[in-house]
């Protein structure tokens, strides 16, 4: 049950598409104590009208500068929603893919971190080798290597940009661990008594930049 007198725990899973974030989120929802809602990027992308797609799922590369101001607002709306749920005592798991490789720097991650200040946030880096990502892309979407055998540039950009600045409370590798094992590591980290600091450090980066 939710506890209105205590903020809900927030777990943010950040990684590339096909890194395994959603599978981990599902395990958290099904096995962790209490109510856990998934307010992640895929859910918000589905709610976005077709003419504004891919919304917050816009890949790195600066391909749609016309969408970027809206994307900043959509990320803010998503994180404001996360904050409201937490303040009502509802636990939230978020599978997302942060990057800052737009036509210009948008500083979305630090802005989002500032929205969740004073709330319990565990930031988890979900890592996955490029080779495994490609295998999963082929298995899921039948989309793989380019005609010349190379990895498509957007996939490479995801791999290079999604873990910048690389500040996390915990990191897991889904090529080495199952979704259940990753969730168990997250559970243990939440229970070990140490206060997460990653989101506060990222929010401080924006303050220093300003």
Automatic annotation (TrEMBL):
Any Pfam family: CPT
InterPro entries: CPT, P-loop_NTPase
Source species, domain of life: Bacteria
Protein name per the record: Chloramphenicol phosphotransferase
Organism: Alicyclobacillus fastidiosus
């Amino acid at each position: 049950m939710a506890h209105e007198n205590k903020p809900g725990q927030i777990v943010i899973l950040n990684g590339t598409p096909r890194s395994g974030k959603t599978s981990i989120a599902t395990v958290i929802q099904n096995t962790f104590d209490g109510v856990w809602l998934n307010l992640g990027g895929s859910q918000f992308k589905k709610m976005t009208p077709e003419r504004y797609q891919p919304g917050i799922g816009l890949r790195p590369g600066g391909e749609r500068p016309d969408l970027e101001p809206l994307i900043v607002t959509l990320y803010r709306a998503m994180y404001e929603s996360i904050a409201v749920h937490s303040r009502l005592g509802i636990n939230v798991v978020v599978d997302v893919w942060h990057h800052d490789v737009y036509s210009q720097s948008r500083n979305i991650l630090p802005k989002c971190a500032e929205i969740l200040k004073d709330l319990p946030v565990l930031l988890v880096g979900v890592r996955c080798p490029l080779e495994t990502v490609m295998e999963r892309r082929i298995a899921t979407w039948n989309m793989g290597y380019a005609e010349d055998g190379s990895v498509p540039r957007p996939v490479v950009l995801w791999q290079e940009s999604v873990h910048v600045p690389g500040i996390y409370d915990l990191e897991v590798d889904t090529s080495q661990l199952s979704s259940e094992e990753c969730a168990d590591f997250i559970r243990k980290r939440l229970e070990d008594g140490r206060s997460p600091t990653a989101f506060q450090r990222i929010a401080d980066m924006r303050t220093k930049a300003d």
